[in-house]
Amino acid sequence: MATSTPLEPTLATQPGVLTSRPRLPRWAPYATLGFAAILSGAILALSGALSATALVALSVVIYAVAITVWSLRVEGSRYAADRTATTVVTVAFGLALIPLVSLLWTVIDNGARVVTFTFLNTNMVGVYGEMTAGGIFHAIWGTILVTLAATVISVPIGILTAIYLVEYGRGALARGVTFFVDVMTGIPSIVAGLFAFSLFTLLFGPAYRAGIMGATALAVLMTPVVIRSVEEMLRLVPNELREASYALGVSKARTIFKVVLRTAIGGIVTGVMLAIARVIGETAPLLLTIGLAADVNWDLFDGRIATLPVFAYRQYQQGGIGVDRAWGAALTLIVIVMLLNIIARLIAKYYAPKTAR
């Protein structure tokens, strides 16, 4: 007769494994938060120090203590530590959102009442002093043209430099390029403006002003950001993809452009958008190089061009109705950056490698 073998011990019966411990119900965090808010309100009301800030701060402290003690008694130390860490991370995220939400609310509140179709479709020709007319049509197109020119200059240089550092760079030259990229990442924006101003003054004379001067200054600021972001994205591409391509007899250059760049296209587009967002709001280099104009200038190589950051600065400096125009320009600039990010996301999603069929 066959003898039965003892069953293997399950996870729930093994010593030291806590999977058999009871868990708090799903509603426990919400109930604890409600209890903390009520208790905090009662304490602050009795002390005469009731305010929104104090209520939120005390509620968070009471919630963190209560949920940790409750979890410790019911679930054990591991789950209690997990709930404490979750609370700390959530609070930190909320604190980080406060300045962002405050900034957006202030810009929307002050700019929404100014931004109209007329404001977006007119320029500042013939507008002086406290006149309520005038708009930012010329500044919108100036910002788009100058930023587009800076992108055309910096993105090819940044991508090719990143390819060199990741795929080819070895020895002193690669270390030197990396060092100078790190240095360029930290230069003040006014230094980039002075560089572009000096360069074009030496080439064309001190009276020369053109949009390409501002584009060059912005390109100096964009290039190290593009290099760093693209470099990191290329390093994330698995070496197995490169080796598979080489095994099929594909050249290294074709592998880079058809396999590596295609795989990292999502991160590359995101890095380029970060670089654009880094420079599209710069004021100092544009104020130094291209100044301000009252009408649209479509020629990047001749004459001053208005941009939204410089327009907002000048209008705020003017005071009066100019402050309202400055808030309207700031809101429009935020909307442009948001639209560019949405477009970049769509492009990255379309060109990203398909993982499923």
Description:
This is Phosphate transport system permease protein PstA. The chain crosses the membrane at residues 27-46, 52-72, 84-108, 139-165, 177-204, 210-227, 259-280, 326-348. This protein is an all-alpha fold. It folds into 2 domains: 28-102, no CATH class; 121-351, Orthogonal Bundle (MetI-like fold). Helix content is 71%, strand content 0%. The chain has 14 helices and no strands. It has helices at 28-47, 52-74, 77-111, 117-121, 137-168, 171-185, 189-204, 211-235, 239-247, 252-263, 265-279, 284-289, 308-318, 321-351. Helix 3 packs across helix 14 and helix 13 packs antiparallel against helix 14 (321-351). The chain is flat. Residues 1-18 have low confidence and may be disordered.
Q: What are its keywords?
A:
flat; MetI-like fold; 2 domains; 357 residues; mainly alpha
Summarize the structure.
It is found in: Cell membrane. The protein is built from 14 helices and no strands.
The number of helices is 14
Number of domains: 2
Shape: flat
CATH superfamily of the largest domain: MetI-like
**CATH architecture identity of the largest domain:** Orthogonal Bundle
**What is the N-to-C order of secondary-structure elements (H for helix, E for strand)?**
HHHHHHHHHHHHHH
- What's the oligomerization state? single chain
Mean pLDDT: 85
Termini Cα gap: 55 Å
Rg on CA atoms, Å: 29 Å
Helix share, percent: over 70%
| Major sheet | none
- By CATH reckoning, the class of the largest domain would read Mainly Alpha
